[in-house]
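Please decode residue identities from the backbone states below.
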């Protein structure tokens, strides 16, 4: 007994973060029954100090409903700190530490975080290798020279440590690059959790080594209890999502601006145990696309964007009557504008068909004769 106590204390001294501000920011009760929110941060750039994490993933686990969700938040997500000044999640972590990041994420998602963990690239790769690799179903091929000299094919495969780091670093995707990267990072986080709860002999066997790789608010006993509470969650009930955002620039920097309404909808769906986002096919199937007229204009100076978007909408049945360019090419994000409230479903279906865009009810600042008016922004990628 004494030996076990000394051994556990030795692990805890390396594992548990000595940060009183962080402990004060975390809460035991999420206010959502037995659901628990955990914040996972990783720095995937070798040589960096990890002050500004490259991956921020919120895990929501609920053993009562047998569900788990991983929500990836871009490090450059723009947030307000005091109601007026704006900065990013990464910048908050660098200036205000882990406690500041926890508070910012709580405010952004409307949640109460209970746990926090952080790791760097080298230790992350070692952790994955010590667990024997992780099984991930990649949504598409990953090739990014800036992320590393390797290639990963789409589909189910087992990733080693360096491969997992490469997958989380890469962001050279043709469409919705930030969102795709976020979903890959969330998939990796879920795969790591699945492996941790299924290793032979129990995860306790790895605790000594884990203490040298990860830093967290939880001690050995708390980690064991947490993993045991989610051990029964089935694979099909573990879902991933990327924070709904759009790109914008400020002072020469590119930020991801939160789409507040979409975030609220996503969190409501998650709390209800549903998929984070409504299935695109279901959204399109809920309307008669041919009964709606749509105009599409290029407002982001992306060559051919209006024609491409119009073709996509016509392919799913929308009556696209007009295309062209806005008077000024200054739109950072793609907007799907509608006037009457009964056209909201059509606007949502347009977003589903394009795979990008934010709906907006506005007839004051936008003048159009069709049911829905689409302005393609700089976030459109050919």
């Amino acid at each position: 007994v004494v030996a076990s106590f000394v051994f556990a204390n030795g692990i805890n001294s390396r594992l548990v973060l000595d940060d009183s501000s962080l402990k004060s920011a975390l809460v035991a009760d999420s206010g959502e029954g037995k659901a628990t929110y955990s914040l996972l941060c990783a720095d995937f750039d070798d040589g960096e100090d990890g002050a500004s994490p490259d991956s921020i993933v919120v895990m929501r686990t609920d053993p009562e409903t047998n569900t788990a969700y991983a929500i990836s938040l871009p490090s450059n997500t723009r947030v307000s700190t005091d109601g007026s000044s704006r900065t990013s999640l990464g910048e908050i972590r660098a200036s205000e530490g882990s406690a500041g990041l926890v508070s910012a994420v709580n405010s952004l998602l409307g949640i109460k975080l209970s746990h926090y963990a952080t790791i760097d690239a080298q230790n992350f790769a070692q952790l994955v290798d010590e667990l024997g690799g992780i099984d991930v179903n990649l949504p598409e091929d990953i090739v990014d020279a800036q992320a590393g000299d390797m290639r990963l094919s789409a589909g189910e495969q087992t990733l080693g440590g360096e491969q997992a780091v490469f997958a989380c670093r890469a962001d050279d995707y043709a469409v919705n690059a930030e969102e795709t990267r976020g979903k890959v990072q969330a998939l990796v986080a879920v795969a790591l959790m699945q492996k941790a709860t299924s290793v032979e002999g129990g995860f306790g066997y790895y605790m000594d080594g884990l203490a040298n790789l990860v830093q967290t608010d939880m001690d050995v006993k708390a980690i064991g209890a947490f993993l045991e509470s989610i051990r029964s969650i089935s694979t099909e009930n573990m879902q991933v999502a990327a924070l709904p955002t759009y790109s914008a620039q400020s002072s020469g920097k590119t930020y991801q601006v939160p789409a507040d309404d979409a975030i609220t909808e996503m969190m409501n769906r998650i709390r209800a145990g549903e998929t984070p986002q409504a299935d695109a096919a279901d959204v399109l199937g809920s309307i008669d696309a041919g009964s709606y007229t749509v105009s599409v204009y290029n407002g982001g100076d992306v060559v051919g964007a209006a024609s491409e978007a119009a073709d996509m909408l016509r392919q799913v049945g929308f009556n696209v009557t007009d295309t062209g360019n806005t008077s000024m090419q200054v739109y950072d994000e793609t907007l799907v504008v509608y006037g009457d409230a009964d056209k909201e479903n059509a606007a949502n279906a347009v977003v589903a068909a394009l795979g990008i865009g934010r709906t907006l009810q506005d007839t004051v600042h936008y003048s159009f004769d069709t049911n829905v008016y689409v302005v393609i922004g700089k976030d459109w990628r050919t």
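Observation: The chain has twelve helices and 19 strands.
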